[in-house]
Write a structure and sequence with these properties.
The protein is mainly alpha-helical. It has 9 helices and 3 strands; from the N terminus they run αααααααββαβα. It has a 3-stranded mixed β-sheet with strand order 1-2-3, with helices on one face. α2 runs parallel beside α6 and α3 packs parallel to α5.
């Protein structure tokens, strides 16, 4: 309906800027169906062929959507250049302002809802769709401003300049969505997520968590797959060591939700571990504690036990 409204606004005004906005809305329609299908696929439980689930379908969907956005930007440039030297009279700009203004408001609200739900469910497809809708809103606002200026000044050549400016904005945002989706497909580390994860571990550290290293966090759609090595006192039995893992899992789920897949390898502490061990009631301590090691992004991802 938003797309049809923009087409009607174009028919009223013959504005290339409004036509560029309408062309981007075609992408919104296609991307909406692509995103909907990707959410359906991503929601499927893991199976024999996909042991980590189907969450990466959202990354593919976001890449497709980003590609469509870039294509829309190129279409806008083409249409504008083809009409650059033609003097196409503009008309009924006031009607066009009202129509595209209404689409901008609806787009922004829909985009905000998509982003909010997407963040809540860690859904890249929903967040990409929401950002796409809000980018569409910003470009529409730019077009409205341009139309208002043309209405007052009668400088109708601004129509083509605005259309070209909007195409650059559209292509840039399409590139950003593609970049994010490729990062997910390639399992690129999410540094902000890792930093938040490390802060939670430091703030809720237990005495038996002598050390933690080789931490990796990978996103599979809404699922977080977490690997790490947890060093515990060497004299704990299997059951006691597993209780520490349970406590770690409970902490992570409390902070990051239930969509967690946690794999923890437990190591027994070694004599050099005493220098960073905060356990005060250890009867087999061989060295005094020198300092409490604060886990950081640099030291927690290394594949070796820490020591002072």
């Amino acid at each position: 309906m938003l797309f049809l409204t923009k087409i009607i606004a174009y028919q009223y005004t013959h504005s290339l800027a409004i036509l560029s906005d309408a062309l981007e809305s075609i992408v919104n329609v296609i991307a909406g169906f692509v995103g909907l299908y990707s959410l359906y696929v991503a929601a499927k439980p893991r199976d024999l062929d996909h042991p980590y689930g189907h969450g990466k379908a959202e990354f593919v969907s976001a890449a497709v959507e980003g590609g469509l956005i870039v294509a829309a930007g190129i279409m806008i440039i083409y249409e504008t250049v083809m009409n650059f030297l033609q003097e196409s009279p503009l008309q009924k700009l006031d009607t066009g302002l009202i129509l595209v203004g209404a689409t901008a408001i609806i787009n922004y609200i829909a985009g905000a809802v998509c982003i909010r739900i997407g963040k809540k469910n860690t859904s890249l497809a929903l967040q990409a769709s929401g950002k796409h809708l809000q980018v569409d809103t910003y470009s529409t606002i730019g077009i409205i401003a341009g139309l208002a200026i043309m209405l007052v000044t009668r400088l109708y050549w601004l129509d083509k300049v605005i259309a070209l400016g909007m195409s650059v904005l559209v292509i840039y945002n399409g590139y950003r969505i593609i970049r994010t989706s490729l990062a997910g497909i390639m399992d690129e580390a999410d540094m902000q997520l890792l930093k938040r994860f490390i802060n939670v571990l430091n703030d809720h550290r237990r005495a038996n968590w002598v050390d933690l290293h080789n931490l990796r966090v990978i996103k599979y759609g809404p699922l977080l797959h977490i690997d790490c090595h947890l060093t515990v006192p060497w004299y704990l039995n299997v059951h006691e060591a597993h209780l520490e893992i349970d406590a770690l899992a409970a902490l992570i789920k409390q902070e990051f939700g239930d969509a967690i897949e946690l794999f923890v390898h437990t190591d027994g502490c070694l004599p050099f571990s005493c220098t960073i061990c905060t356990k005060t009631d250890c009867s087999v301590r061989q060295q005094p504690m020198k300092e409490r090691l604060n886990w950081t992004l640099e030291n927690i991802i290394s594949n070796q036990k820490h020591q002072v």
